[in-house]
Specification:
heterodimer, A: 248 residues, alpha/beta, Rossmann fold, 34% helix, B: mainly alpha, ABC transporter involved in vitamin B12 uptake, BtuC, globular
Amino acid sequence: MIEATSICSAEPDLFGVDINLEPGKLTGIVGPNGAGKTTLLKILAGLTKPVSGELNLNEQPFELFQSLERARHIAYLEQYSFVHWPLDVWQLVKLGRYPHRDRPGNSPQIDTQVVNDVMQQVGIQDLSTRTFHSLSGGERARVLLARALAVQADHLLVDEPIASLDLKYQFEIMQLLVDQTNNNICVGVILHDLNLALKYCNFIYLMDKGKVVSRGLPTQVLTQENIKQTFDIDVKVHDTGIEIYSLR
Amino acid sequence: MKSIQQSSLILILAAILSGVFFVSLWIGPIDLEVTQIFSGRGEATPHSVIFWEIRLPRSLLAVLAGATLGLAGAVMQGYMRNPLASPGLLGNASGAALFSVILLYFGIRSAFMLPLAGMLGSFTALILVLLMVGSNASITVLILAGVAVNTVCAAMMALLLNLAPSPWAVRDLYLWMQGSLSNASLTDLMIMAVPLVIGWYLLLKNDQALDVLTFGEDTASSLGVDVEKLRIYIVIGLSLAIGAVIPVTGIIGFIGLVVPHILRPFTGNLPSRLLIPSALAGAILLVIADIFVRIIATGQELRIGILTSIVGGPFFIALIIKHRKELF
């Protein structure tokens, strides 16, 4: 569980954000461009320090965790993941085991087992000898997710995992994230597609201009008024989804 | 190309290195007699003097310097996530060269002072680069700062050549800058070995962190890599290793750039697997280059830095043309 209280940061600005990521829940963070979503997620992942505010990981202050220990608790998948060397898929997923390298009780056998397991889980076991750069967008997204899952952290923070993917892959990735919550993992995800957020998330934070403007169940947060105010578009919310009917 | 087991790659390279090292000991203007080298019982024969004071230090220096350049090149390419990075990209090599040239300019040739000046120069250049970069982690800014420091160092060296008091001094400095392995004694090597080994250790210590950097710094630090600490290790490791080598050898180009490039396909592109093989292959290449320098009959001995650049340049061009579709 990650609890953040009154998080403030500068450039890009956050003004006193409170957010909780709870075990077994898929928590969505939505909001227009520049709302501070990525900044917030990086702070929650411990990658950047907030100017002020309190951060707790499993009810202990963030500062008590050393970097490798924190890395074993929080897996983070960034938005524009870039792979600089043409590694094969197996090697690449195995890099997710880095935080475990000095942990007592870990062994190369365990690493291999975990890598094979997560590759099975996301359905990329046939790709293991392929080079990352030879894969399609949908395959790449799953490989990168497998890398994050190989950490076996109890928190998974994902920044817009489905942008520019075909619909089929969008659903696949979202379903994989939901599967993680069944293992009692805290999953935090930034989404641009409000319909996917509505369909898959258990809890939603709606952000705008560095603040959380609404929080709650998806149906409570993603209302006609809220969307009009933050995204500046007119929508109708049906039981089946959000319909955009006019762009001003 | 298929990647092969790292242990077999290392074994093959180590075997080749021992072979060329042995050849290097026996090649030179005088054919050495083994019996004459070891029969002396403490008494110096001309052959034993040539062996212990010329051939052995020279061959050992080729191994140490080549290994350092290969290793530093591989670490640099891994750290910068760029196949075009060279050991001197961040100005550390030209910083070491500049400080050495300053000492040589004033006629100081002490075996202790030169490596010290080299390390200081290397370190100063890297610190300047880091100060310029500030907290910006961008690789492009880092490279730009390195280019700037390299340019300043080159200009300062040109200035010293310009102001040198006599044509002989100019010639001396100029030839020194072109690299040579012929000036080292066993004492020089022993003095240089200490910082060298510490530098190697620091460069090898974070091998797996380099792998994780494949994803960039954000993901690497999310996996527990302390990015700032890594940078400090690499800066100090490079300063010690490159700074210790350059004052003794002068500037030897292209080894650190080309070697990791040749080996990368055999290592599955994983930066950590490239480090030790690059050190071995760097040593092999420099020993071979030094053998050629001795064999090729030129009136004045060919400078090894010129040879590595003359051969390495076109080779690098060929590599780029061959791999341009795979470069990313």
